[in-house]
Amino acid sequence: MATRRNDLSFYDRMAPHWWNRSAKIFALNHLNPLRFEYFDRFVPDWKDLRVLDVGCGGGYTCEFLASRGAIVSGIDQSQACINSAIEHAKQNYSIEYQQGFAEKLPYSDHSFDVVVCVDVLEHIEDVERAIAQIQRVLKSGGIFLFDTINRTWKSKVVMIWLLENLLGEIPSGVHDWHKFISPEELRNYLERSQFSNIDFHGFNLLGETISEQISAYRYYRKTKNFRASISDDLSVMYIGKAISK
Questions:
Q1: Cβ(237)–Cβ(216) under 8 Å?
Q2: Helices then strands (H, E): number in the chain?
Q3: CA distance 195 to 75
Q4: How do the pLDDT tens digits run along the chain, 245 residues long?
Q5: CB of 223 within 8 A of CB of 122?
Q6: Interacting residues of 162 by C-beta distance below 8 A, sequence separation 6+
Q7: Are 28 and 17 in contact (CB under 8 A)?
Q8: What is the CA radius of gyration of the chain?
């Protein structure tokens, strides 16, 4: 029987364990400091900015932003994840969460200074429509910050064959290689939705060479942390920003 691809039911199943430090999903929480080394180039001060996290899951990025003083909203299609996010945020933060879809954001025009969308675009059903919605809810001059996965032979080997099928670090079926997005495709979507000043960089979690990848994976297995770097290599994951006109 063929493996179901882009199987997002994994996130529903993991929702009750989202904030359990021993759960495999918790590794995603360690990515935020690495991502924001790049994002902070464009937003040096998050205090009092209205920020939307599209595809927020159980709230890792929302809480990371709230800890920096941002006024945060989070939306996710998984009600189970939203419930987990609401419950955990009660301890420390006031974050507005709701269930919904990127293709139909339930917010007024020009509501946000920044929209963040990480580890999500490659799962969305209609990426171009979602980007148009993100542009709509951003203020003029607002910033869209994102990362996603390129559709290359290398990303298929690393993200699906290696991390899903061989090592089991990602559950089999979470990703669909056909839904990965090339930088050229994403740039076209952004430009058609009136974004400018588009910037892409490689977001490398396992290094570029085989020896670097083996070393980085051993380090991850030992520490549950990543040795990520920002580079010019967009062949697997890439990170970026765009400005709403």
A1: no
A2: 8, 8
A3: 22
A4: 456 677 788 889 989 999 998 888 888 888 898 899 999 999 999 999 999 999 999 999 999 999 999 999 999 999 999 999 999 999 899 999 999 999 999 999 999 999 999 999 999 999 999 999 999 999 999 999 999 999 999 899 888 887 777 776 777 778 899 999 999 999 999 999 999 999 999 998 765 655 565 565 566 656 666 667 789 999 999 999 999 99
A5: no
A6: none
A7: no
A8: 17
Closest by CA to 105, choosing from 115, 118, 93, 95, is 115
Q: Which amino acid is at 19?
A: W
Q: Rounded to an integer, what distance in angstroms lies between the CA atom of residue 245 and that of residue 159?
A: 34
This prediction's pTM: 0.92
Element (H, E) at 80: helix 79-89
Domains and CATH numbers, the chain: 9-205+232-244 (3.40.50.150)
Distances (CA, A) of 230 to 35, 115, 164, 240: 9, 20, 23, 10
What's the rounded Cα separation, in Å, for the pair 24 and 139?
A: 36
Within 104-180, strands assigned E span 112-118, 138-149
Distance CA 74, CA 97 (A): 5
